[in-house]
Design a protein that fits this description.
about 140 residues; alpha+beta; NIF_FeS_clus_asmbl_NifU_N; Iron-sulfur cluster assembly scaffold protein SufU
């Protein structure tokens, strides 16, 4: 597949998550809740994680922002559901590295649609948008431990 076709596909995946967000809403019952915002552009998110026995049983978000931040939140919640907290944190670290333009092997991380955000690394002003939900997840896990 050519670069232009791949770029188009990635844009379509991002817009699909933006227009049809997965896991948008609130978690029923007890949940770890984190509110974060990106003051430079106005993106804000409330992330809720339901963790049982060290495993993310459910993950949902509410908030508003650009297509990058909201689609990243949708993708992240999909990617971490059912994962051990350590695996979710490793995914977050790998995602941050990807945003810094570092080459990485994502085969063992099961990133799914998240890989569509690789191109954001070429736009430094948008990296904070893409990482907002991931930073919220890290903060929530760290505060809970």
């Amino acid at each position: 597949m050519s670069f232009n076709n791949l770029d188009t596909l990635y844009r379509q995946v991002i817009m699909d998550h933006y227009k049809n967000p997965r896991n948008r809403g609130t978690v029923e019952g007890d949940a770890l809740t984190v509110d974060m915002n990106n003051p430079t552009c106005g993106d804000r998110i409330q992330l809720q994680l339901q963790v049982e026995d060290g495993i993310v049983k459910d993950a949902k978000f509410t908030g508003e922002g650009c297509s990058i931040s909201m689609s990243s939140a949708s993708m992240m919640t999909q990617a971490i559901k059912g994962k051990k907290l350590d695996d979710a944190l490793n995914m977050s670290k790998a995602f941050s590295n990807m945003m810094l333009g570092e080459e990485m092997d994502t085969d063992d991380l099961d990133f799914g649609d998240v890989e569509a955000l690789q191109g954001v690394s070429k736009f430094p002003a948008r990296i904070k948008c893409a990482t907002l939900a991931w930073k919220a997840m890290e903060k929530g896990v760290q505060e809970d431990n």
